[in-house]
Amino acid sequence: MTFVAYALLALCAIPFIYYLLSLYSTVRYFRTSRSDSAPNPDFTPPISCLKPVKGLDAEAYENYASFCRQDYPDYEIVFCVDPGDPTLPILEKLIRDFPQRRIRLLFGSGRDAVNDKVARLTRLVAEAQHEYFVITDSDVRVQPDYLHTVISPFRDPHVGAATCLYSATEEKNLTEKLQSIGMISDFFAGVMVAWQLDGIKFTFGQTIVTTRKAIAGYGGYPTIEDRPADDVYAGRLVAEQGYEVKLLPYVVHSVADFDSLREFLYKRLRWMTVMRLMRPWGHLGLIFTWGLPWSLVAVAIHPSLTVAAAYLGTYLSLRIIMTWLIGIWGMKQPRVWKKMPLIPLWDAMAFIIWLASFARHTIRWRGINYYLRDGRLTAVAPRDAPNVSR
């Protein structure tokens, strides 16, 4: 082989360095965080659980009821929902079934915002009774020790926000299994590396724990009413104030709801486009995290059994170990082994979606096309619409 061929083969091995960093970060994270995040029964401040709700999610009653079964002394649950929303009968049943819980319904956000969820959060924060907030999406289901666990880091006044790992309750089809294995083997691997290199400066919508003071410090939720990825911004803006943002090893469950592969791919492409527009250089840097395509390039450069075995074998081995570490050893999730054969399919799909995201310059949000400029959504003018990528 020529020097150029050797150089290209070395380049093709860069994703393996990323995988090894992911493995190291994962082991260090779980060993460190498990000892740091044990619940403290002596720290039980009153909590407001805030739920912006729109539409009827699958298994909605069980999701909401899990918050009513908390082993915690003092908390309220506040929903913000539109009058006539299909989930309203479920919420009324919840109030009847759990009379011992303080459950309040707020009707409408009273605001006109691009991101209606954030508009609802603006009202929820304003009308919440307590100083500590636990904000969760409507498809989240938790265990009775949830509030005790997620509030524990706030014993330290330097902590301004916390978030949790999450997994699907049960995958009913191939699309949901792909989503699940992708989160465990790919998305959370990147989160572990971010934790190792730069700390956690974001939160996930499945759990945002924060304080009234931290939210007020960045101007409140009206500040991000015209932004996508509001959960990411909520954590970032807290971190920018000098607070610590904690990633807890506690796993909450999210009810899988992808009915079709097309719907899944569309949402994934929208999310990747948002990430590219928000962090263009970081998004471009993902090129060095895709082990499968680089391994195939290596085989194309030098098509031999030795190269194929070395690159593809290393790729598969590291991906399987990574998935085992995160999903089984770290998150204690069942049925992960059965989904591991889907890892190469997920990696191929994720790489193609990443490539496709470079061709998009707008995102579609609730039926309207938007540009993302300076992190804010700006509606596409009608005269520009024919030239907009959808």
Describe, in plain words, how this protein is organized in 3D.
The chain has 15 helices and eleven strands. With 390 residues, the protein is an alpha/beta fold. The chain has two domains: 3-26 and 267-376, no CATH class; 29-260, Spore Coat Polysaccharide Biosynthesis Protein SpsA, Chain A. Strands 3-2-1-4-7-6-8-5 form an eight-stranded mixed beta sheet, sandwiched between helices. Strands 9-10-11 form a three-stranded antiparallel beta sheet, with helices on one face. Helix 2 (14-36) packs parallel to helix 13, helix 7 packs across helix 15 and helix 12 (291-301) runs antiparallel to helix 13 (305-330). The protein is globular and about 75 Å long. The chain starts with a helix and ends in an 11-residue tail after the last strand.
